[in-house]
């Protein structure tokens, strides 16, 4: 059985969430894009902590994937894809990486979930 606080993918997502959360400090943002990045970064970090604490939670990995997709789409939906390229590229890159990390952690989460359910 997998130990809590040990999955590298979830630690990577914690770092990604912190990067997105703090990125308005070093990339140009509008108020709208700043709050989008702060909110999605915080949610990404919180979901990764949830996944680290409960390695058998398959739902948390799907949350990473969903938040990664929202982060990837945010520059177009929230209107910062054309004029704030630093913020847009941060969203696109971290969004894709969050999707990949969530997908990579799914097999381990499914295995841990199976062990948790067999008690």
Q: Can you lay out the helices and strands and say which pair or pack?
A:
Layout: H1 8-22, H2 31-53, H3 58-77, H4 85-117
Helix pairs in contact: 1-2, 1-4, 2-3, 3-4
Give an overview of the whole structure:
With 119 residues, the protein is mainly alpha-helical. Helix content is 76%, strand content 0%. The protein has four helices and no strands. Helix 1 runs antiparallel to helix 4. The longest helix is centred in the last third of the chain and has 33 residues. The mean pLDDT is 93.
Structural class: mainly alpha
Fraction in helix: over 70%
- Specify Rg, calculated over alpha carbons: 15 Å
Low-confidence stretches: none
What is the typical, i.e. mean, pLDDT?
93
Q: Cα distance, first to last residue?
A: 12 Å
Element pattern in H and E: HHHH
What proportion strand? Answer: under 5%
How many alpha or pi helices? 4
Shape: elongated
Biggest sheet overview: none
Number of strands: 0
Key terms:
119 residues, mainly alpha, 4 helices, 76% helix, elongated
Task: Give a brief description.
The protein is mainly α and 119 residues long.
């Amino acid at each position: 059985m997998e130990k809590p606080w040990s999955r590298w993918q979830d630690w990577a997502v914690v770092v990604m969430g912190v990067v997105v959360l703090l990125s308005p400090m070093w990339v140009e943002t509008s108020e709208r894009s700043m709050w989008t990045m702060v909110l999605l970064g915080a949610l990404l970090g919180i979901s990764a902590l949830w996944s680290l604490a409960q390695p058998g939670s398959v739902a948390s990995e799907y949350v990473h994937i969903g938040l990664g997709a929202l982060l990837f789409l945010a520059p177009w939906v929230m209107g910062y894809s054309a004029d704030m390229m630093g913020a847009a590229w941060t969203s696109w890159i971290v969004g894709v990486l969050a999707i990949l990390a969530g997908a990579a952690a799914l097999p381990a989460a499914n295995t841990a979930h199976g062990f948790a359910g067999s008690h």
